[in-house]
Specification:
Length: 278
């Protein structure tokens, strides 16, 4: 087995005997082993896309988590989107974020920035979810989907300079964030829950764990709840910030690097008191 296939087994996505059965069926039918894994229900298309996302370093997204603005959808022609199986999700400042099945297509990476006149960030999504979103936008159309055969391993995201250079203190408390940016809309109004991971030593940035991909540049409101429990909401600490980067981790967990844009001295001191020195 090739290295990517080894990782599929070693990572316990499928058992070795399942992979071997799929490989044998692929040889008989002259189709990819990935197609046979899905056909045999050893893996779902979502699971396979998440696996590819983790190996490539390109975040996986569930398109239904986002509300696509008409002006963003209008950035690309319907036929073009269907041909390349992609859909624009949102535009943040001068960057368009595209959900697609093949973020390594050289033609896309070469022509799209020139066509749109701005930067492009690719996100990974299963073809059926993209087709469903396209059908919801432009009406249904039948498609035959070809699953990607290989993923080129990319270097993991390193974050931004200010985040790397600042010493971090471990900090684990419940939190929630709300989008305060007209450039990004979600289909629901409730805050996104998660946990903090660490805070920079100078108190200018904080790391969060959430289960939704959020693009850099988006402005958010944060509420930290150190004493939250099943019986009491406890007191909270409120700040505002901007997403500096979003890194996909295991499964559908994402790590957000947040730069504070509004934080009082009192709020910063309260967060420092809750942090654990290394």
């Amino acid at each position: 087995m090739e290295s990517l296939e080894n990782k599929l087994v070693d990572g316990h996505w499928v058992r070795k005997e399942q992979f071997e059965a799929a490989r044998q069926e692929a040889a008989k039918t002259n189709k990819s082993v990935w197609s046979m894994l899905v056909k045999a229900s050893y893996l779902s298309l979502d699971d396979l896309s998440i696996f590819f996302a983790q190996e490539s370093g390109i975040p996986y997204v569930r398109i239904s988590d986002y509300k696509i603005k008409p002006e963003v959808l209008a950035l690309l022609d319907e036929d073009f989107c269907r041909q390349y199986i992609l859909i624009p999700l949102f535009k943040i400042k001068d960057t368009v974020y595209l959900a697609c099945t093949n973020p390594f297509d050289a033609e896309l990476t070469d022509t799209l920035p020139k066509t749109l006149g701005c930067a492009i960030e690719f996100l990974l999504a299963p073809p059926r979810s993209i087709a469903a979103a396209l059908d919801a936008s432009w009406g249904p159309e039948e498609k035959t989907f070809i699953l990607e055969k290989s993923i080129v391993q990319q270097k993991p995201l390193q974050g931004l300079t200010f985040w790397r250079e600042s010493q971090r203190l471990p900090l684990t408390i419940p939190m929630s964030l709300s989008i305060e940016d007209e450039a990004l809309s979600l289909p629901y109004a409730t805050p996104i829950d998660g946990y903090t991971r660490d805070i920079s030593h100078n108190g200018t940035a904080i790391g969060l764990e959430v289960f939704l991909y959020l693009p850099k540049g988006v402005n958010i409101a944060l509420e930290f709840r150190p004493e939250a429990s099943l019986f009491s909401s406890g007191y909270s600490i409120k700040t505002k910030g901007e997403i500096v980067y979003c890194r996909m981790e295991k499964g559908r967990q994402y790590f957000l690097g947040i730069k504070f844009t509004e934080i009082t001295s009192e709020a910063r001191e309260q967060l420092f008191k809750l942090a654990t020195p290394k």
